[in-house]
Amino acid sequence: MTDFSGRPTSLPTRLNAARVKVGDDWVFRLAPTAVMCRMGAVRASVYSYLIDVAAGIAVDDDPGMWTFTSDMTVRARPGPAPATVEAAATILRRGGRSSTCEVHVVDDQGSPVAYGILGFARVPRRPGDPEKWTSDPNLGSRFWEPAPPVEVPLPEAAGIRVVDGPAGVVEVEIVDELRNPAGTIQGAMAALVAEVAAEEMLSARHGGPVLVADLDIRYLAQARVGPVRTRGIWLGDGPDAGVLVELHDVTTGRFVTHVLARAEPG
């Protein structure tokens, strides 16, 4: 399971998403806290984690294969953070080498707050790869014991450094707390890095804080060494223009993640 490590020090684990049964279906529930939010709204990268978890559990059923997220689209509804959010996945296509899922996220009143659609690639495990953590589908409410909650804003907890905000350049070391069990940076943590870079660019243009609501992510290569540094590119000159954020592994020179982002002004 590339998104679950079970390690209490893992930053994604410390978001404390829980697997709960609602009627006949299993969903993933998260209680957003202030450190998971920006401008009072849940970060798109936090939704990306919940969406990735819900879909990943649905499709990752082979202990001999890594199931990597290859692409993910997240659409989030700006607004005050709900008390809880729940994500439910539907497999749209399951193949031998790839799968596609959609995920609907609703608040505690059942109203939609986010949506995601994801593609997954299956890669055989190789000798020497890290041990793959797998879940027991018969487990009840949680896949691990509650982890120590994150107590500082997520960008700070991840160690993201702003190098040149208006240019969309930020940097992060790939530490164990940000890795998935395959040893590469976890998908939602890459999304968080891109989200911060986009926030910096768009906030500079708008002259005030913005909230990233849309993320279109393509995972191109594994980032194992780091640090990861972003490159920002404007996609137009208007006030509603989006940005392209590229993530590069500085040491290996690999272009690892491609992200299109759009934000709502504060």
Distance between the termini: 37 Å
- CATH level-two architecture: Roll
> Number of folding domains?
1
Count of individual beta strands: 14
- Helix count, DSSP H or I runs of 4 or more residues: 3
Mean pLDDT: 89
Round the Cα radius of gyration to an integer and report it. 17 Å
Provide an overview of this structure:
There is one protein chain. This protein has one domain: Hotdog Thioesterase (Thiol Ester Dehydrase, Chain A, Roll), CATH 3.10.129.10. The protein is 15% helix and 39% strand. The chain has three helices and 14 strands. The strands form two sheets. A twelve-stranded antiparallel beta sheet has the order 1-2-6-7-8-5-11-14-13-12-10-9. A two-stranded antiparallel sheet has the order 3-4. The radius of gyration is 17 Å and the shape is globular. The termini are far apart.
Ordered list of secondary-structure elements with their pairings:
Elements: E1 18-22, E2 25-30, E3 37-38, E4 41-42, H1 44-59, E5 65-76, E6 85-94, E7 98-107, E8 112-124, H2 154-158, E9 161-164, E10 169-172, H3 187-206, E11 210-219, E12 228-235, E13 242-249, E14 255-265
Antiparallel strand pairs: 1-2, 2-6, 3-4, 5-8, 5-11, 6-7, 7-8, 9-10, 10-12, 11-14, 12-13, 13-14
Helix pairs in contact: 1-3
Summarize the structure.
This protein has 266 residues and is of the alpha+beta class.
Features:
14 strands; 266 residues; 12-stranded antiparallel beta sheet; Thiol Ester Dehydrase, Chain A; single chain; alpha+beta
